[in-house]
Design goal:
431 residues, Aspartate Aminotransferase, domain 1, 2 domains, seven-stranded mixed sheet, three-stranded antiparallel sheet, 12 helices, globular, binds pyridoxal-5'-phosphate
Length: 431
């Protein structure tokens, strides 16, 4: 039994064309044998076929607009905008909030780099915050410590389908008068105190990249109630789409229809695929949620592992990954590497986190002359980071283990996985 995690997995496959160069494919990877879920199928293919025959291939087409309307309905927000990917949704959100040179943007040290990669490109310095070692999310107290008069935005990330403690985050942010962007790329359909994630802070951003719970292949969405954020997001990425279509006030009338001339418009075919996927999301979340809860309950019999709690009042969704905590002290000091090996030997692929702590990347640790000639936020005055700067995140990364995410488990799949996890736990404790 070979299983794999449906989390950022890059598959390099031999090219079938004339060139020998490897190609890069990154779509969701079903866990063979144990999972019946097919990420894309006939319905998505039919949608693409029909849209192509209608020549619905560029711009804010009917399918795109319908998808955005549906996103507004699901989030309860007034505005939604599709983009070419999640990174450009985040870029648009930061631009929407007026983030620019000299500003600082706080974000978790533990997240995918694209959460914050747009900030330096807008001239703003990223400021990393510690993780709460219990919940793995950004630590609200550490956000408070890192706020300065230059802080222009706080980005929080609902990692792997779990949900941040939004009451504490919003309290810290409101006290400082700083807006909050929620990066919901892992947690489509999750809620906090009954509200969809993405609708609690000031702007929500979602990736619709190939392995995400709702996939466009490549795509993204931004949603907000703030008309100015929305209109600025239109200005920065929706060239030629905004005239009489998107802008709702007259504030930027003189800039219509080209805005800033930048283009982050989503491909309509991708959004067509995502609209089919969106209809499946409640079922996907129900199935994944039941499987995750079944495994978590069974971990009571696996000494090495324990579940990770989500914030009070939250309902997980998306389940882009399935992290659990490895308790080395309960199994005689064995390491996660020992445990991964023991599981692999029994045919189960579990893995460590694929995300490095951002402060350890040379780009941020040493800085980078982004705009050449000593210009940009990561050079002059950039203090950089040292390996020991984020002890909680560092500890977290030694403890996180990722189990397979099954969306439609075959009968007995959870029991089989739990059996292997328990066997491996017993085996490593005897090392
Ligand atoms: C947390 C997070 N934020 C942002 C992104 C960027 O999204 P995209 O790859 O669609 O640009 C990703 C993608 O994996 C992500 O996981």
């Amino acid at each position: 039994m070979e299983t794999s995690q449906p989390q950022p997995a890059a598959a390099t496959v031999p090219s079938a064309t004339t060139t020998e160069a490897p190609v890069f494919v990154q779509t969701a990877d079903a866990v063979q044998e144990l999972d019946r879920w097919e990420q894309v199928g006939e319905e998505e293919a039919r949608m693409v076929y029909e849209m192509t025959l209608r020549n619905e291939l560029s711009g804010g087409t009917p399918v795109v607009r319908q998808f955005e309307a549906e996103w507004r309905r699901l989030t309860g927000l007034k505005f939604a905008l599709t983009t070419v990917n999640g990174t450009s949704a985040l870029y648009s959100a930061l631009f929407g909030l007026g983030v620019g040179p000299g500003d600082e943007v706080i974000c978790p040290d533990y997240t995918w780099i694209c959460t914050v990669s747009p900030a330096p490109l807008l001239g703003a310095a990223p400021v990393f915050a510690e993780s709460d070692p219990r919940t793995m999310m950004i630590d609200p107290d550490d956000i408070a410590r890192r706020i300065t008069p230059r802080t222009k935005a706080i980005i929080v990330v609902h990692l792997w389908g779990w949900v941040c403690d939004m009451d504490r985050i919003v309290a810290v942010a409101r006290k400082a008068g700083v807006p909050v962007i929620e990066d919901c790329s892992h947690s489509h359909g999750a809620t906090y105190r009954g509200k969809p994630v993405g609708s609690i802070g000031d702007v929500g951003c979602w990736s619709l990249q190939g392995t995400k719970p709702v996939s466009a292949g490549e795509g993204g969405v931004l949603a907000t109630d703030d008309v100015d954020v929305f209109e600025r997001a239109c200005l920065v990425g929706q060239v030629n789409r905004i005239k009489g279509v998107d802008l709702v006030t007259t504030r930027y009338r003189d800039l219509q229809p080209l805005g800033t001339g930048m283009k982050f418009r989503a491909h309509p075919l991708g959004i067509g695929i995502a609209s089919v996927q969106l209809a499946k999301l409640p079922e996907l979340n129900r199935r994944r949620g039941a499987y995750v809860e079944r495994i978590e309950a069974g971990l009571a019999d696996v000494a090495a592992l324990e579940p990770i709690p989500t914030s009070p009042g939250s309902q997980r969704g998306g389940f882009y990954g399935f992290p659990v905590r490895f308790r080395s002290e309960r199994v005689g000091g064995a390491s996660t590497a020992d445990y991964i090996k023991a599981c692999a030997g029994r045919g189960l692929k579990v893995g460590a986190s694929v995300y490095p702590a951002l402060h350890t990347l040379p780009y941020f640790a040493k800085g980078f002359d982004l705009f050449t000639g000593g210009r940009g936020p990561l050079v002059d005055g950039w203090r950089g980071y040292k390996p020991g700067d984020f002890p909680a995140t560092r500890k977290l990364l030694t403890e996180l283990l990722f189990l397979p995410v099954l969306s439609d488990p075959v009968d007995g799949a959870a029991e089989k996985i739990l059996g292997i996890l328990a066997d491996a736990s017993a085996a490593v404790s005897k090392l």
